[in-house]
Amino acid sequence: MANGIEFSFPIFGINKGEAVSKQPNLTSGHMNNVRPYDVLETRRRGGQRPGLDKMYSQQIGESDKAAVVWLGEIRMLI
Amino acid sequence: MGTLYENYAPASGWVARRTYSDHEACQTFTPQSSHTLSSASVYLLREGSTGISNCNAVLEIFAVDSSVPTGSALGSAAINVMNIDVVTIAWYDFAMPNTPVVSGTEYALAMRIDPQSGNANNNFHWYYKASGDYPRGVWSGRYGGYGWVTLTAADAMFKEYGYVERFGTVDNLFSGSKKVTKKLVAIANDELWWETSAGTMAEVSDATGHLNTNKVLDAFEGFGKLFIVNDTNLKVFDFTNIKAVTTDVGANPPDKGNILTGGTSSAKMIVDYITSLTSAMSIYGNKITTVSFSSGETVTGTDDDNNAISFTLSESQVTAPHWYDWTSYGNDSSYGSLPDQAGIGCLYRGRAVLAGDKDYPHQWYMARQSNPWDFDYTTNDAQSPVAGNNADLGEVGDIITALIPRKDDFLIIGCTQSMWVIRGDPAAGGSLDELSLSTGIFGKKAWCWDSEDNLYFWGKGGIYVISIGSTGASSPELITKYNLPKIVSDESINPSVHRITMEYDNIRHGILITITKISDGSNSNFWLDLRITDSEGNKVYSLFPEEYPTQAAVESLHFYNADDPDYRKLLIGGYDGYIRYFNNGSKVDDAGSTNGIISAYVTLGPYAMNPNSGKLGKLMETTVFPAGAKTGGTFGDSDSIDLKFYKGVTAESVLSDAIAGTAFLSVTAAPEKTKITKKIRGNYLAIKCATIASEETWSFEKIIGKVKPVKGEPQ
Q1: Taking CB atoms and an 8 Å limit, are A48 and B186 in contact across chains?
Q2: CA distances for B370 relative to B141, B607, B654, angstroms
Q3: Alpha-carbon distance B476 to B442, whole Å?
Q4: Under an 8 A CB cutoff, do A51 and B589 touch?
Q5: For residue A43, what pLDDT is reported?
Q6: What percentage of residues in chain B have a pLDDT greater than 70?
Q7: Which of B168, B438, B551, B699 could disulfide-pair with B627, CB 3.0 to 4.6 Å?
Q8: What is the pLDDT, as a whole number, of residue B712?
Q9: Which of A9, A65, A72 faces B185 most closely, judged by CB atoms?
Q10: What pLDDT score was predicted for residue B404?
């Protein structure tokens, strides 16, 4: 008699600290670029992470080697 | 009288314009903010009295057409001509009926005598300047039944007052009131950039050449300014104050907090900072009137010792932003001095706090409360400047790596090997205590707070959390000790090689932890999702590794509480100078001029194929339910998913194959429900789900298998 088994997305994230044969439920020892909430409907069922997009078209420092070393905001009364 | 809005009041250079009989004059103005005009003042002098003693000077407000009055007067007011002095030129107020005026719309103030009478020797003068510089209006005159003649270069002297409706419609409730706005600031390649309008970043040219991004750098906001500590470069980017300049401040320079008044403009400012106590100086202050300081006018006030302040402005005021050196007040030693260098800073209890002095790496410095220009540690009051070597609290016995304020309650000082906490104010009964002697904090940005007062940071053993309760900070808890016990050795972290940055995402409710190799942009990152709980509701610290294109490697993070909700996101300062964000609609990573595929995968299992662990079992069939599962339906649809099946005798061999080996079975799960009937026999099974191609994303609702035990011994 066959038993039904659900192969669930590991919403508890990565776990490399237990015996492989006793991989904790809802964890995985091997994953990359996935998140527990999907990008299609923001449901807790797992999937590929969201992509990175430019927020501003300007290149700060105007060079491919110009790392943005500090980012923050300032509040002011107007 | 109300708030002064538009005005033109030059200190000198004006001439008379006679008003009598049908000789009339008008001056137009354009409000910069909508308000209700309630009165107006004009600069007048009477000449003679014959025939005009029973006349009124009538001031009316009109709408304009081509900068001259049109239609009926919107409102008017009058004073008896004989009330105008014949000796001294003076301002005369006309109490106008309340007249709404709209920002950006031009109006005219027109002067006439009623009834028409008088002559060239019996009249009153409305003074004007032939070469006026009021920028939002013009002067016109008429007589003899002719139309208005406009002299665009001329401007008559006037002031208009009014108020803003505080109650009534919702639209009026806040109009004209002061409100808060926010601007994004970014630093890269020795340059400072700021958001001039939503979605547009521009370089601050004054700052170019005054920063060195190869040196330690930190910045913090306070008092409407950005204070930047960059090794020996200590700078201020000021968004709030106006700047005024004089070539000679006189005998009594203003103190911080003094109110200065422009003698001609009537503009007022509260002094914040001055660059010198003698001779030429720049004054930065918060202007509290709508009118502006103008060049040539005399500015007066009273200093803290009741001495009269008086000096002449050599330039008209300049509005923010401003870029200048961060020094003590007046750059004078009587207010102490800042450390020669710093690389870490924050604001705590209204004090500017500095650390990261390479010559004194264990030292912390605090400016006077609410005064970032005062570092005179010799004073002795509850708001005094204070430093580790000038306080009862003392220095910390370790190299400071991070300053972490929490509201006004305490300041955590992270060090390389330990953590300390200042509770309360160090000049008013505060204390300095050890928080941990077992871990420090990796760096000045390797920490963040979540929305529930928990502090997360990268320490000696990995990722820690400190919970803040009613009694203060708890001991650090290493949250990676069970699930990622080798995280430190796996990541090979080196402070001189890597940059670690952490930030809480208020929208996705998790923390992004990024590790970037400074030399080449290679990176290894984690998403810590704080929405995950177990079946009993306990929080599970769920970590998900991520990797980005080197161009988009993370150098800085900030959750931007922007005015415009379109920009209210976790922002990522990239290795290549671009600022990015996570976009649910994007199936690729922006890598500058190209896009990079998101190589996403997760291994499910290994699973024992037989309830008697280690014995044989058989997967009879597998059914995959991708998200959406019905192309074109109500919900978003997954793209196809690459499914690989691995089987083996031991769990470890199966996982090893999933990482680097060959799959037993490879299947593409279509966007819709997919049934896989291939049978798989083994002791352990793992399924790897992965992205197939660029411009694709995937998610699944569930994957169901039917497994049947197989008689026999392990293979």
Answers
A1: no
A2: 53, 61, 62
A3: 14
A4: yes
A5: 95
A6: 95
A7: B699
A8: 60
A9: A72
A10: 96
Cβ A16–B485 below 8 Å, yes or no?
yes
> How far is Cα B530 from Cα B658, in angstroms, rounded to an integer?
28
pLDDT value at residue B164: 76
Residue of B nearest to A62 (CA): B577
Give B175's pLDDT tier (boundaries 50, 70, 90): very low
Q: Which residue of A has its CA nearest to B560?
A: A73
Report which of A31, A60, A33 is spatially closest to residue B589, judged by C-alpha positions.
Answer: A33
Which positions in chain B touch A15 (Cβ < 8 Å)? Answer: 482-484
B285 lies within 8 A of chain A by CB = no
> Number of residue pairs across A and B with CB atoms under 8 Å?
367
Cβ separation of A33 and B606 shorter than 8 Å? no
Predicted pLDDT of residue B496? 87
Contact yes or no for A71 and B185 at CB 8 A: yes
Report CA B228 to chain centroid distance, whole Å: 14
pTM: 0.78
Position B470 pLDDT exceeds 70: no
Please say whether the dihedral angle defined by the alpha carbons of residues A53, A59, A60 and A63, taken in this order, is positive or negative: positive
Whether B217 and A11 lie within 8 Å, measured CB to CB: no
Minimal-distance CA residue of chain B relative to A71: B186
Q: Can you give the pLDDT at residue B1?
A: 66
Cα distances (Å, whole numbers) of residue B213 to A68, B190, B430: 9, 5, 35
Closest partner CB to B543 (pick from A8, A13, A55) = A13
Rounded Cα distance, B57 and B83, in Å: 10
Q: What is the ipTM of this complex?
A: 0.98
Give contacts of A 16-75 with B, CB under 8 A: 16-21, 23, 27-56, 58-75
Planar angle of CA B686, B637, B699, nearest 5 degrees: 25
The per-residue pLDDT for range B340-396, each reduced to its tens digit, is 999 999 999 999 999 999 999 999 999 999 999 999 999 989 999 999 876 677 778
Mean pLDDT of B697-710: 94
Contact (CB, 8 A) for B529 and A13: yes
Query: Could you say which of A15, A54, A71 has the minimum Cβ distance to residue B590?
Result: A54
Contact A72/B226, CB-based, under 8 Å? yes
SS3 string, B460-522, reads CCEEEEEEEECCEECCCEECCCCCCCCHHHHHCCCCCCEEEEEEEECCCCEEEEEEEECCCCC
Residues B444/B402, Cβ–Cβ less than 8 Å? yes
- Residues of chain B neighbouring A25 (CB-CB closer than 8 A): none
Mean pLDDT value of segment B421-428: 90
Rounded average pLDDT over B231-253: 96
Two tokens, residue B507: 């929208």
Across the interface, whether the CB atoms of A51 and B587 are under 8 A apart is answered: yes
Count CB neighbours of B181 within 10 A.
12
pLDDT value at B168 more than 60: no
> Residue B321, preceding bond cis, omega within 30 degrees?
yes
Q: Is B173's pLDDT higher than 70?
A: no
Asked if B704 lies within 8 A of A42 by C-beta distance, the reply is no
| Min distance A18 CA to chain B CA atoms (Å) | 7
Partners of residue B699 on adjacent β-strands: A47
Residue B269 phi/psi, 5-degree rounding, is -140, 150
The DSSP H or E segment spanning B651 is helix B651-660
Q: How far, in Å, CA of B147 to CA of B162, rounded?
A: 30
Out of B186, B549, B688, closest to residue A71 by CB:
B186
Contacts of A66 in chain B (CB under 8 A): 188-189, 191, 576-577
Of the candidates B682, B543, B537, B707, which has an alpha carbon nearest to the alpha carbon of residue A7? Answer: B707
Binary contact (B573, A31; C-beta < 8 A) = no
DSSP, res B165:
-
3-state secondary structure of B173: helix
How far apart (Å, rounded) are the C-alpha atoms in residues A63 and B44? 60
For chain B, give the mean pLDDT: 92
Going through chain A in order, the beta strands assigned E by DSSP cover 3-6, 31-32, 34-37, 44-48, 51-54, 68-77
